[in-house]
Amino acid sequence: MSIEELARANVRALTPYQSARRLGGNGDVWLNANEYPTAVEFELTQQTLNRYPECQPKLVIERYAEYAGVKPEQVLVSRGADEGIELLIRAFCEPGKDAVLYCPPTYGMYSVSSEAFNVECRTVPTLENWQLDLSGIAEQIEGVKVIYVCSPNNPTGQLINPQDFRVLLEMARGKALVVADEAYIEFCPQATLTGWLEEYPHLVVLRTLSKAFALAGLRCGFTIAAEEVINLLMKVIAPYPLSTPVADIAAQALSPQGINAMRERVAEVLLIRQYLIAGLRETACVEQVFDSETNYVLARITASSAVFKSLWDRGIILRDQNKQPSLSGCLRITVGTRTECERALTALRQQPGLTATEAV
């Protein structure tokens, strides 16, 4: 028997998540992973690397709870929000019996994590405006234990209507957890659902330091939920999910100075996003630019695959969304520095496309 045959059948059939780094490229303008474009400096203060770290570093938990406006008992820290996605499936879904539900086009790790654990994956595509198809979800909810909703949604960039979230939470009460993935919430903080946790004990909120906190390389995320949910996740999390240097830097990033610096970065990103959207709307090959509440912009582009390749060859790396349902012809562009956005716009303007009158 080959090694391949020794593996579980569902793993053999699994298509791994194609992260920006896995897709490669030799660019010098990276606008494909929704990262903050420049590095933020930190100095390590913890030198006790001979000792194992705390499972849930106290200072990190306390500072994040204060920042998010919840109790420390409602916060779990993990290796990015991706680990939070997995822990929820591991703790709540019986393989071969329960199901996970999500609404494409959306973040790819919900399906990859479900399939890796051999948990059925149900999809209810969003409506034309990328809002939830609530009647479609109602038809599929039987046997579902975890529902993932990304808001603002990656890769489309828009918020899910709060009223639809309420309907979904009522629909799922006593049946399933509703997980609001708020990876990009710092770009529209007024839209967070953390204030709803008391009213809906089956609501879970996922957060990260990868985006607005400019720490994608740190791999640090948070799950915010009722204490009962956190206690169950603690049963299945690794003994030491965060290394000492990660906890050290995360605590610094969540200090009052760190949070102020993050808010300044967000203000800067929002200004550059405005510039990028305005520039895209004046570019011949760009057919449509969608409103965004995040640090990226989705645009429908004439001959998008050729345009993607043309920019790739120039070292400007965007994210091709063509294969996602309802995103035919769409490219996702991270808001980089103003110079990076200028370079991307210049390259796009050199592509053949519709004239302004044809586009109307």
Characterise this structure:
By secondary structure, the chain is an alpha/beta fold. The protein folds into 2 domains: 3-36 and 258-352, Alpha-Beta Complex (Aspartate Aminotransferase, domain 1), CATH 3.90.1150.10; 58-255, Aspartate Aminotransferase, domain 2, CATH 3.40.640. It is built from 14 helices and 13 strands. It has helices spanning 3-6, 9-12, 20-23, 58-68, 80-92, 109-116, 134-140, 162-172, 227-236, 244-253, 256-281, 304-313, 338-349, 356-359, and strands at residues 29-30, 75-78, 99-102, 120-123, 144-150, 177-181, 203-208, 221-224, 286-289, 296-301, 316-317, 319-320, 330-334. The strands form 3 sheets. Strands 2-8-7-6-5-3-4 form a 7-stranded mixed beta sheet, with helices on both faces. It is globular and about 55 Å long. The chain starts with a helix and ends with a helix. The model is unreliable at 355-360 (pLDDT under 50).
Low-confidence stretches: 355-360
Main beta-sheet annotation:
7 strands, mixed
Overall structural domain count: 2
Spatial arrangement of strands, main beta sheet:
2-8-7-6-5-3-4
Inertia-based shape = globular
Report the CATH topology name of the largest domain. Answer: Aspartate Aminotransferase, domain 2
Average the pLDDT over all residues and give the rounded result. Answer: 95
Count of extended strands: 13
What Rg is obtained from the alpha carbons, in whole angstroms? 21 Å
Which superfamily, in CATH terms, is the homologous superfamily of the largest domain?
A: Type I PLP-dependent aspartate aminotransferase-like (Major domain)
The portion of residues forming beta strands comes to 15-25%
The total count of helices amounts to: 14
Question: For this structure, what is the CATH class of the largest domain?
Answer: Alpha Beta
CATH architecture designation of the largest domain: 3-Layer(aba) Sandwich
Could you tell me how far the N terminus lies from the C terminus, measured between alpha carbons in angstroms?
Answer: 61 Å
* SS-based class: alpha/beta
- Relative helix content: 25-40%
Element pattern in H and E: HHHEHEHEHEHEHEEEHHHEEHEEEHH
